[in-house]
């Protein structure tokens, strides 16, 4: 799975879960500054991504932007085939 595919999956999930227009979600989008998400919102997104990608996401890691989250998923996928 490519980084672009992961980004598209993350963007779709965030758009659906948080009722945010997909156009507002880029790799540089900051969860708190750009989307005004609180920690519960971020946790819910992470929980859904863990289920979708069958990984565990450490919330201690600094995941401030969508790009941070996409890169985390890409490097922690079980098949390690993200590019």
From TrEMBL:
Record-linked Gene3D superfamilies: ACP-like
Alphabetically ordered keywords of this record: Cytoplasm, Fatty acid biosynthesis, Fatty acid metabolism, Lipid biosynthesis, Lipid metabolism, Phosphopantetheine, Phosphoprotein
Subcellular location: Cytoplasm
Name of this chain's protein: Acyl carrier protein
Lineage: superkingdom: Bacteria
HAMAP family, alphabetized: Acyl_carrier
Function description: Carrier of the growing fatty acid chain in fatty acid biosynthesis.
Alphabetized InterPro entries for the sequence: ACP, ACP-like_sf, PP-bd_ACP
Pathway linked to the protein: Lipid metabolism; fatty acid biosynthesis
Post-translational modification: 4'-phosphopantetheine is transferred from CoA to a specific serine of apo-ACP by acpS.
Species for this entry: Lactiplantibacillus modestisalitolerans
Recorded family membership: Belongs to the acyl carrier protein (ACP) family.
Occurrences of domain Carrier (ranges): 4-77
O-(pantetheine 4'-phosphoryl)serine, modified sites: 39
Organism placement in taxonomy: Bacteria, Bacillati, Bacillota, Bacilli, Lactobacillales
């Amino acid at each position: 799975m490519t980084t672009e595919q992961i980004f598209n999956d993350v963007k779709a999930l965030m758009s659906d879960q948080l009722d945010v227009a997909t156009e507002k979600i880029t790799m540089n989008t900051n969860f708190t500054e750009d989307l005004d998400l609180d920690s519960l919102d971020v946790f819910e997104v992470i929980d859904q991504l863990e289920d979708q990608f069958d990984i565990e996401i450490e919330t201690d890691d600094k995941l401030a932007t969508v790009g941070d989250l996409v890169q985390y998923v890409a490097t922690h996928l079980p098949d390690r085939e993200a590019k």
